[in-house]
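Annex B. Sample input.
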Amino acid sequence: MTKYLTFKGDGEFRQILILSLLSGKPVVIEEIRHLEDELGLTEYEVSLLKLIDELTNGTKTKLNETGTRLVFNPGFIIGGEVTHDCSLSVPLGYYLEVLVCLAAFSKKKFNITLRGVTHGQGHPNVDTLKHVTLSYCKKLGLHSAEMTINKRGYAPGGGGEIVFNCNTLKVVKPIQWLDSGKIKRIRGVASCSRMSPATNPRVIDKARGVLNDFLPDVYIYNEHLKGAQSGNSPGNSLTLYTESTTDVTICCDNTATSQTLPEDLALTTTHQLLDAVHAGGCVDSSHQYLVLLYMALTQHNVSSVRLGPLTPFTITFLRNLKLFFGVVFKIKVDKIDVEEPGNRKGLGSTLVLSCLGVGFENMNRSMT
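Annex B, continued. Sample output.
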């Protein structure tokens, strides 16, 4: 008799699907929005299940009539060439965060075309995924991971299109990311579609006005799109990321709402970036889950990483890693001296997380 892991609620939906596919353990998710007016799985969650079905072989999903109970039996990750029209309710980052976790453990290389909203609220936009997420992937061994942005599409109309390519891995090598180094440059992308060409310069000038007080090497690329490449809705966004002497990348992005001034977008994003740098660590908060997953799946060796404060998403992910793979992380508070304005020294702290990998091997990988 098949033994199912049982979960309640929708808060861990993507985590559960990722870990179920990698571990091969079937799951049951109950009470999905059972007290809300709109019961069960949302349109974008059903779209994610359809994408997983296209990328795998043998996956079986069963929903009850109200959509509040899901039975998920994972299959084998096949990969290959897939084109998928995503829901316009969430950005493509919602789907791509799942794909970067699964791509390394597929039978064939991923060649995925996604269409939908490239910039929205609640999830990383495609610029962050292209410049930052893929840089983490390459450090983890996915050297041919790349993303092409064919069209940009802002919420609510979408109309964007990206192509994600990624190689596979046989095994994951141990990770030792402890030295965050010194920030040597800041890069960014200011993008707008179907808006005045003066929007991006206003964003860039305001952002540089803040960042140049800390570092002279700041460059923000101006990308103004119109015509077929600009999607179906107007919008603008700003993505900023730092690069350190030890190749550590820290990022932050924001997409403007209809009420957001360009200067406010710049100030919000720059302040969030500075807060992320001040938090310390070798991985920013939006990518903690990715590095911890690879650490858990490494060969039978100890991996360590320095992080800033753990997000609620990361804490839940650590619990689920223990549940699916039996991996337990040792967490050490590492106090460091940081220089503060006025040449005063304050006491900061980061977390060093260590674990012994389970020795995961990609049995799906094609040998041809």
